Amino acid sequence: LLLSTYLTSCAEDGSRGDPGADKTKAAACIACHGADGNPADPNLPALAGQEWHYLVDAMKAYQDGRRSDPTMTHLLETLTEGDLEDIAAFYASQQAK
Ligand code: HEC
Predict the structure, then answer these.
(1) Residue 34, Cβ neighbours under 10 Å: how many?
(2) CB atoms within 10 A of CB 70
(3) C-beta of 24 in contact with ligand 1 (< 6 A)
(4) Is the CA virtual torsion 7, 8, 13, 16 positive or negative?
(5) Is 96 in the pocket of ligand 1 (CB under 6 A)?
(6) What is the pLDDT of residues 49-80, one digit of tens each?
């Protein structure tokens, strides 16, 4: 039973987030992080090609205060977990340059 629970949760995990679903959800992010997650300004973090889990966790961290950056917290505060997962899937699927 334990094993099957584990396998099921892994399978669900792998299918989370839809990279095609929303480029539009990432529209507010383009100005800083670039249309494909490669920012024009080298001082801003690149999101392209980063791990999906890393991106979801980083965004949640801005929401729950584990990370503090006024801009990011403000931009992410209205997004749901599903939004974060889609955005993360989009950026994770982009090619880092
Ligand atoms: C006004 C510029 C700006 C906009 C717009 C912006 N960001 Fe950011 N973002 C930043 C900066 C600056 C940081 C680094 C903050 C820090 O030091 O924690 C950052 C960090 C991040 C990180 C963490 C990256 C890492 O490698 O740890 C993620 C993920 C992220 N942003 C996602 C988004 C998403 C998704 C959006 C759109 C909803 C967005 N950002 C919009 C400026 C911006």
Answers:
(1) 20
(2) 8
(3) no
(4) positive
(5) no
(6) 999 999 999 999 999 999 999 999 999 999 99
